[in-house]
Task: inverse folding
């Protein structure tokens, strides 16, 4: 007897995957969608709060998936080398494997919130039984539509959007310099833990989350980083005066981008 195809939608705690959950609830309320979140246990409290808000507003249950072993375990296995854009073992171990275990050998359709105005690919499982689909692309929905979906649903944006434009681990190496400075301000305890990860090696080595400087060196340049950020924000607001603040922030932070982040974590 053939098993039914499963419908899955991964929430990252970011705006696009959340808007996709809203969209799918509106357009296909009868679809037996399975919502999930791969928890690295290193996320911001704001992300966990946002997931609770999504569940309450949409009346859905979001399954929390976790890797069998912790981030610290995998860090030790990797000899203390912090993950980086070129060594994304964290995504593989903490986000992708738990999903693949959750699906097993079942046939599944995976709904992915890449927008029509984005030119990037989502995480596409190498597993042949997981078929990705892109409802925003198919329906030509762009960023303004996503923001409207979130506002109309009453969910809104995640609280961290005041200072950070992406979900993911508090120490994510995809953070921009301004976001690190703001992490130190908003969550000094988490910033201190990220510093610990750089320094705390038995042989005295130091690794850095960002290229070329330690977090403490970066924080020492805080005034300069904030001033640069404010200058870019003002320029962006002058160029596009009617943009919501969250969009201005995102555009400015994206300018600093060197490598596109992984969508398993940040969509
Ligand atoms: S959010 Fe960043 S640090 Fe966390 S698993 Fe994803 S890529 Fe790695």
Result:
């Amino acid at each position: 007897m053939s098993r039914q195809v499963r419908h899955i939608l991964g929430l990252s705690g970011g705006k696009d995957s959340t808007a996709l959950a809203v969209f799918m609830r509106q357009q296909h309320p009868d679809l037996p969608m399975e919502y999930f979140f791969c928890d690295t246990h290193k996320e911001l409290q704001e992300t966990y709060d946002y997931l609770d808000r999504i569940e309450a507003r949409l009346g859905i249950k979001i399954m929390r998936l976790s890797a069998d072993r912790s981030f610290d375990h995998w860090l030790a296995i990797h000899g203390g080398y912090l993950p980086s854009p070129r060594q994304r073992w964290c995504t593989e171990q903490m986000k992708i494997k738990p999903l693949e275990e959750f699906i097993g050998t079942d046939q599944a359709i995976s709904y992915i919130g890449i927008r029509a105005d984005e030119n990037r690919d989502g995480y596409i499982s190498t597993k042949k039984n997981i078929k990705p689909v892109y409802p925003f692309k198919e329906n030509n929905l762009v960023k303004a539509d996503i923001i409207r979906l979130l506002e109309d649903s009453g969910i809104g944006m995640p609280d961290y959007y005041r200072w950070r434009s992406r979900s993911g681990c508090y120490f994510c190496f995809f953070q921009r310099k301004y976001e690190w400075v703001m992490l130190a301000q908003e969550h000094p305890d988490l910033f201190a833990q990220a510093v610990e990860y750089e320094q705390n090696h038995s042989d005295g080595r130091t690794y850095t989350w960002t290229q070329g400087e330690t977090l403490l060196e970066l924080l020492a340049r805080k005034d300069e980083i904030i001033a640069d950020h404010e200058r870019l924000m003002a320029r962006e607001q002058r160029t596009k005066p009617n943009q919501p603040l969250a969009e201005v922030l995102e555009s400015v932070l994206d300018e600093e981008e060197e490598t596109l982040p992984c969508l398993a974590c940040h969509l």
Q: What stands out?
A: The pocket of iron/sulfur cluster is lined by residues 40, 83, 88, 90-91, 94-95, 168-169, 172, 174, 262, 265 (CB under 6 Å). The beta strands are 6-10, 33-39, 62-66, 108-111, 130-133. DSSP finds twelve helices and five strands in the chain. The chain has two domains: 6-162, 177-266.
